[in-house]
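Hi Y.,

Following your request, here is the sequence exactly as I used it, all 220 residues.
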Amino acid sequence: MSRKPVIKGLYAITPDELNTAELLRKTRLVLQGGASVLQYRNKLATGDLQLEQARALRQLTREFDTTFIVNDDARLALQADADGVHLGGEDGSVAAAREILGRAKIIGVSCYNRAPLATEAEKQGADYVAFGAFFPSGIKPDAVRAEPGLLEWARQKLDVPLVAIGGITPGNGAALVQAGADALAVISAVFDAADIQSSAQEFSTLISKVRHDISKSNVI
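Below is the corresponding structure, written out as tokens. Let me know if you'd prefer a different format.
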């Protein structure tokens, strides 16, 4: 059995774009910039459009050998042959998603600013957990705030990859990687950038550099 993809690096999340051609254009630039993971998230699309876009993105991510995750909906992830699903607080249990997707697929879980949720998610078989928002977010302005210390705790207590989300930019992301984040989840900072590919590349380079520096210091 092949190993599941590792969740790390730039974790790009799609915006609420109803124009599929435009969504694919922007996403291609993000992938060219080095995103390691792409999550399809579109809160405005109908079910039919979501399936159309998810399948198109699945094809595009295969071209770049990028891990493809669908937000919220395990059945949509199955229909699109995604690599997995990301579950929010109201999207059902890990067990229910696992029953739909099988053991080979990735299941990620949003844990917000709550350590007990992360512990339980790992216990239930989640493949990664996400914390945030670490900074003010235009996408979710009312999101609960998490502190970098939560990543430090999780790095010591959990054995699954850690994703940080919420208002992350190249200027503030390094501290989250230093605190323990394996991946930085970003929407606006890449998809709304004047130069999408360069912005994605900046994130990818930043994450790689910080993780290299951490590894080097641990060896020393």
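The mean pLDDT is 95.

Thanks again,
Q.
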